[in-house]
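Feature request disguised as a bug report, sorry. It would help if multi-protein outputs had a clear separator. Right now it looks like this:
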Amino acid sequence: MASLAICFLLLLGTVYGGHEKYEGHHLYRVAGPSDEIAQLEAHIDFLSSTPAASSKSGQLEVLLRLSPEERVKWLNYFTEKNMHYTLVADNLANILRDEETQLNRNKARSRSGNNSMSWDQYYGYQEINDYLDSLAEKYPDVLTVINSGLSYEGKQIKYVRISTSRFEQLHKPVVFIDAAVHAREWVTPPVALYLIHKLVVNVTDPDLVEKIDWIIFPMANPDGYEYSMKEDRMWRKTRSRAHEGSDECPGVDGNRNFDHYFGTRNASSDPCSIIYEGPSMFSEPETRVIRDAVLTHLDRIRLYISAHSFGNMFLYAWGNNGTLPSNGLMLQVTGVQMAQAIDKLKLPTAQSYIVGNSAQILYYTSGTSRDWTRAVGIPFTYTLELPGYDYGFLVPPKYIEQIVTETYAGLAAGARYVHSLYN
């Protein structure tokens, strides 16, 4: 019977696994001063960071993972620092197994083999790329697939250009979206794919395509994404092995690898850190393809959003020091436009979106795509942290449709508002 079950999962096309390494790992919510929390990020796996539900400013709450070997050390540290902590789950492996069961059940129920997408499951690398190619065949007048380059392991990194004028009307603003820079944030590709679906297949807002051109990367880190699906659900970085120490600690955090104050934070210099910035700026082919696409269309890109999970936030520059760009007020106003559009559709139990400067809301960061794109001249750039509800980035498939639908409303509102400013 066991062998039959394994064969069945292989037929489904995606095999999830690697959960045993998280046996006995606990999840905790920890609250404390933002500067104290920030010092921990290089040493502990943060699953989220949000402003603490406290009247005191400068307080953060993080959801983090502790292995059995780490637990005593860090719980003693939290106690010594008067940082309040609460146990959320006592065995991460069981949570991952439950997720795997649901995902495989959905795969078996809805597998169609016709290159279509449903909004109740997560798709693998090849399925997503095949879907993009099928759209290019069906809608050649509006959608073009760009094979932008190969990942470290040789996977094709594709993005789409959506335009009713083949990107030839230079007065039209461009909106740029990327997703899955962090491998384990599985809910981000569906947001990008649903946006493509609404702009090309089920077009209910024709002005978004007629007046605006779009560049969308549904899966910017295919190596890490596939590794997260097949080997290690908690994997976040790329899978490169071109840096010193990579045999023990492969991969780079793609959202620390951009050329903006790169190398200025010690927390990102350790190859074994989950936020390792890499041996040099743009060392990763996955970040270079985003860089090249941005620079190719820099004179027309007006809005850039990098989709991440989770936290219900629109965050803007500057993350390295907490000061604001020259258009800081308009960044706030535009972010609020998007947040309000999402909040109108959110679940009653969901948190309202927070809009603000990344360093002021959370803590200092360097080398992010959000700050680099603002520095090179894109006026409106954001990190979008999607909802996690009570599940973090382990969002059950039943919530995908809700998230993609409400997020589409926010992206549409942002695109329209920016268009109005540059019309």
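(second protein starts here, but nothing in the output says so)
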Amino acid sequence: MTSAVVKAVGVVKDVSPLYYRILSKFPQNLTFCFAYGSAVKPQIGNQKKHNMIDLIYCVENSYRWHGANIEMNPSHYSALRYLGKGFVARFQENWGAKVYFNTLVEMREENVTIKYGVVSQKDLIADLLDWNDLYLAGRLHKPVEIIKQTNSSQLQNALQSNLRSAVHTALLILPETFSEYDFYFAISNLSYAGDFRMTFGENKNKVRNIVQPQLLNFRELYRPILQQFHVYVDFATGDTQCHQDINPETKLHHLMQLPMVPQQRIVKFWNHGGLQQDMEDVLRAVAYDIDCAVILRQILKDIVWQSSVRQSLKGVLTAGFLKSIRYSAKKIAKMF
């Protein structure tokens, strides 16, 4: 893995041995793994030592991985395991945001509780490149703890592409002048604005609480990406204001670089009830429209809303009713 890619996916040099001990309890054929959330990265108002650790396990073959894991850790699964590994794998890949979560898993020997999501590599790459669901792609817009690096050049490139897409999108949403904090807030908010869980069970200041204590981590994550944007933005760190080119032709460039799904939805929105225009014509018209940022924000909100609702409903089945109630209660308790 090149140093540029290592930086782009947010690798932390000294990974806690705890994570490796946790992974040792699972089938080892993972292609990529990262940890995220308040137990992993600092968040204002969430300094509790016993926060649940959130993990994502990326696998090449969901059918084989779940088969092995059901044998090793049957208690992690709800009653869905009785329908077989084939059903579990299909349920993972065909419903919601294509992630299968097992939650409130107690690792007693480590004195921690974890939640882990399983995703196939092909589905992770698709979300990173196209923003089908903006679900795991959104989590990877923010600093995470990479536990197992990927050897797949396709996934490495998709991870970088996802960060570049976040920058193009943030610049379209932000005004001509903004602060470094505004920039990282805009990026972090891409996958929270529209998330129906933000209407209940989540702190309304969650994005601010993520960004403020992690400015240095965000800076490290996006530094190599922003070097590719020097023509479009004069990016400054600290208290100095950043300035970007807001010429419509520059906006058109950013729109042309967006992932496929937001582009398609912009075209659908623009053509609704009117003259049917192709993608380039629509994106050019949007670039010159005073409501360009408003349109883009609404498109992204719709993507996030749909995927968050579907994935949350899916979680009731993968966790089981009792665990779902306990998990929701823990989320609400963290607000107080």
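Even a blank line would do. Unrelated, but nice: The CA atoms of residues 35 and 55 lie 4 Å apart.
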